[in-house]
Design a protein that fits this description.
7-stranded parallel beta sheet, 10 helices, alpha/beta
Length: 265
């Protein structure tokens, strides 16, 4: 198979699913991982995909675009893991916490494995599964109902109603974007409403957002920057973002991202 034929297949698959993994392409196309990586380099050089750890995702910046969970799970993995570990330090045993849907909160859920006696409320099937797989004793996981979005959040009137009578210590919120003015945003109007209900149920809001979220604006504002008690981001967050967030949020915490060797990518 010629290189351009492989690249056409890769691009078609990326556009169909939102993301492709090197390991899956190696098996499907019967070539080495180095060959696939070169193909991804070519597609990225043409502005057709964005290379991420383990694969690539499609490119699109419209305020109503909502990538699927699989596509987002490939993006900024190391940064999300660093953020998750830093955020887990905020959780005390015996707490009642809320987790919104998203790949950053899903990563955070896995970082909670060593914390006992938690009650966790979430509107994400993926987050609930991650908490269940940890098999931590003395843990209660409450999954809201609702209509499922492309990013696998449960949203809508059923989800909102289930959150209105709850009282949580902390809510950990993943966002599509954050910016001065629009605040924390999402590309899904109904998900924004559900996230606001989750925030209203908690005493404090903690936002988990890697550096790529700064300057991105979704169609619906979830909360103002000043509503966040804590924002946890990574060390690649630009200085102007740090300055703005420090002026508005209660506390900006920066997680250090471990250096990954080139041959591990």
């Amino acid at each position: 198979m010629l290189a351009r034929q492989r690249q056409a297949i890769i691009l078609e698959e990326a556009r169909r699913t939102g993301a492709v993994r090197v390991s899956e392409l190696v098996e499907r196309l019967g070539v080495s991982d180095m060959t696939i990586r070169r193909d991804l380099d070519v597609l990225a050089g043409r502005g057709l995909v964005e290379k991420v750890y383990g694969g690539a995702t499609t490119l699109d910046d419209r305020s109503t675009d909502e990538p699927g969970f699989e596509a987002k799970s490939l993006q900024q993995q190391d940064h999300k893991e660093a953020i998750a570990q830093r955020a887990a330090e905020l959780v005390k045993p015996g707490s009642a916490i809320g987790l919104s849907a998203g790949t950053t909160t899903w990563t955070f859920a896995r970082a909670l494995a060593g914390i006992a006696d938690l009650t966790v409320v979430t509107n994400s099937v993926h987050v609930a599964d991650a908490l269940h797989e940890a098999q931590q004793p003395n843990r209660t996981v409450i999954l809201t109902g609702g209509v499922r979005t492309p990013s696998d959040a449960l949203v809508g009137p059923v989800a909102v109603q289930s959150l209105r009578s709850l009282h949580l210590d902390l809510v950990f919120l993943g966002v599509h974007g954050m910016a001065d003015g629009p605040g924390f945003t999402t590309p899904n109007l109904t998900e924004g409403e559900t996230d606001r209900a989750l925030i209203d149920a908690a005493r404090k809001l903690v936002v988990l957002a890697d550096h790529t979220k700064w300057g991105t604006v979704g169609i619906s504002t979830i909360a103002d920057l000043a509503d966040a008690s804590v924002v946890v981001s990574d060390e690649h967050l630009p200085e102007d973002a740090r300055k703005t967030l420090s002026e508005h949020v209660g506390s900006l915490q920066i997680a250090e991202v471990p250096v990954r060797r080139e041959d591990d990518a």
